[in-house]
Amino acid sequence: MQPTAIHHNERVAFIQASWHKEIVDQSRKGFLAEMLVQGYQESDIDFFEVGGAFEIPLHAKLLAKTGRYAGIVGAALVVDGGIYRHDFVAQ
Prior knowledge:
CATH class: Alpha Beta
Distance between the termini: 29 Å
Helix content: 25-40%
CATH architecture: 3-Layer(aba) Sandwich
Number of strands: 3
Strand order of the largest sheet: 2-1-3
Strand content: 15-25%
Order of helices and strands: EHEHEH
CATH superfamily: Lumazine/riboflavin synthase
């Protein structure tokens, strides 16, 4: 599968959770590296940080409604801490 052609006016949003930041930052760095390989410039990508994984879908919805972004990516780490919360967030 080949990636589609990149339009120079396309913008991408990357939303990341601040929980487990040191791990999620690695995802952001890997995403950025691949986007650069695909022909995007770092200035084509807007980075957003939210509290946790639960907030990512709402923030993505708000960004999508702006019509500004060709794509929106979310990254978080959900850990099974032995309580119900991880199930709730993961679903």
